[in-house]
Amino acid sequence: MQKRQYIFLGLMIILFYLSLKIIHFEYKKYTISGYIKQQEYIINDVANYLEKSNDTLKYINTPAFKNKILKWENWKKMKWEEVIILTSETIYNKFSWRNIIENTIIKENKVKVNMTSWMTNFEKWIYFLLNKDIR
To answer: I need a labelling partner for 72 at 20 to 30 A (CA). Which of 10, 28, 30, 98 fits?
Structure first.
């Protein structure tokens, strides 16, 4: 009778060990798939950035852009010409004062004070476990 108990105990230990190995393998698979997804997002962002950069470089190398810059810097401007540079609404809104002020106000509002930052470790444990502030 005792021999069966030892065999059963041995099989339970083996079963527990194999289940731990399966859980460890699944955890590794999950972390690797998360890393792969993150790298795919990074690659897509870099590809989009390179595409936009190529478009910008093509635009910068055009004679119209060079002419606009030279006129803007008064190198190629005639006496009767006035230089007016039109920008799109998205670019204007990106650098408008109202948008800059709103962004700074939003960033300032997002900063929150952590009430546990001045507590000792013992006070933090009491706060997290019992939800009591003993400062």
So the answer is: 98
